[in-house]
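Field: sequence (string)
Field: structure_tokens (string)

Example rows 1 and 2, in order.
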Amino acid sequence: MTRSQETRLAKLEQARGARARRYCFYYGEEAEAEAQGLPYMLVPRPLSREEWEKEYCHAPAAEEKKD
């Protein structure tokens, strides 16, 4: 390994260790994150299969109006 590669790796390790940690909380958990004093970001909670189907699987309008 060359000297420049060693220097580059050392800089990357320092930058990686100095990087601020961020925590992900689901919507509705904001109070918990703030109470802990953590830097956080909100992410949507994964939906169960039933929740996903209810939210995104709708019958097309043409099928709904059959006489």
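Row 2 begins here:
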Amino acid sequence: MGRGLSDLQKRILIIGYEHRQGRHFDKEERQWHDLVASNRLLQGFPHRVRHDIRHPEIIASLYDWPLCWSSKEGRYLRPSEGALVEDWGQNWNREVIGLAEYNRKTAVYDRAVSRLRARGLLTDRGPGLWITDEGMRVAEALVGARVT
């Protein structure tokens, strides 16, 4: 089932699984219909569930790198301290993280995601990832093994 997955691949699947569990598809559908009703340019476009989680959200969960400068605190804040990743643009200051560490860890992340996609556990959806039904089954087993 989960044999052959690296620790990083397992963590990525669990992060995607947990995000999926926290979603409210009916609420998202209603919000889309409200938005379409208020914007005639969107009328005629169907609601599409785009992705479960975006790459920056996963990377923030995995590495907890400093994100934004807080003038109040006089330092960079991390996601674990409430800093939020941006939808677009640059999230992390490579100079603060260290260019070598940033490049190494993002390359490892990209390979792990590519391998999960090749196994059919994740698919690309626009700017993010969608955990497949098989990915959900594997993640449920991983979460269950983690609890026991």
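free_text_note (row 2): The first strand starts at residue 53 and ends at 54.
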